[in-house]
Amino acid sequence: MMLPAPDTVFIGVSTKMYMGYAHSLEWVEQLVAEVDARPALTAGRVVPFVIPSFPVLPEAARLLAGTPLVLGAQNCSWADGPWTGEVSPSMLAELGVGLVEIGHAERRRYFGEDEAMIALKVSAAVDAGLTPLLCVGETEVLEPEAAAAMVFLHIKAAVSGDWSVASQLVIAYEPVWAIGAPEPASAEYVSRVVAALRESLAQHGLAGIPVIYGGSAKPGLLPQLDGVSGLFLGRFAHDAANFGRVLDEALSFCTADALKTPSRGR
């Protein structure tokens, strides 16, 4: 997936393992209907993406063909070869996947994925032509500047210090303490963390790379955020109508943003 312009808004959702096969495909069809009902999405200012479970990917690719929805995968291996049970980035690309989630907090905590493994996966995904959706975030509430410093180190480790690779990422800022919580992190907190993170990234010419927020994100949050490139939704978007509501917020956000001079510098 080629990254669009710096002011693009990304709105995505993952199913994790909450849905079975038939339910997943029914839900994907509902997302397609929500997207088709919003022809303004074809302009590309808002990029919607959906990340279902691995077995769903081939049929989901067929359902998404010709729509603005980008297909993503929830994980990938670090290479082709004798890795039983893994799925290689090259196979994902062959299936029509455009981006792949790497480094989610659950993978780090429960599957022992460390920074070295995450870096291997990021490199393999880029080599296969996929856009890594790199998940990063602090484990406890910190001062925004401290949280941003921790996130910056996660990003640096994930690209092994090669900032040319970082330019090909979408960053999913997901404070671990907010994942699965009743409410997301406050808009002020998220905006301050992302602003401080962009200051650090600016030292490497990367202030404009996409940084989206995830962690109990839901309708109503996006209009409150400043300097954030979109939302990575979870359970709240398992109701396709909520996905549509957030798309409307993003489209309105882009329209309002385009009228401002200078831009908000997402």
Automatic annotation (TrEMBL):
Subunit structure: Homodimer.
Pathway where it operates: Carbohydrate biosynthesis; gluconeogenesis; Carbohydrate degradation; glycolysis; D-glyceraldehyde 3-phosphate from glycerone phosphate: step 1/1
Top-rank lineage group of the source organism: Bacteria
Name of this protein: Triosephosphate isomerase
GO molecular function: triose-phosphate isomerase activity
Keywords: Cytoplasm, Gluconeogenesis, Glycolysis, Isomerase
Record's catalysed reaction(s): D-glyceraldehyde 3-phosphate = dihydroxyacetone phosphate
Xref: CDD domains: TIM (cd00311)
Subcellular location(s) per record: Cytoplasm
EC number(s) recorded for this UniProt protein: 5.3.1.1
Originating organism: Paenarthrobacter aurescens (strain TC1)
Family: Belongs to the triosephosphate isomerase family.
Subcellular location, principal: cytoplasm
A Gene Ontology BP annotation from the UniProt entry: glyceraldehyde-3-phosphate biosynthetic process
Gene3D superfamilies: Aldolase class I (3.20.20.70)
Top-level EC class: isomerase
GO cellular component, one term: cytosol
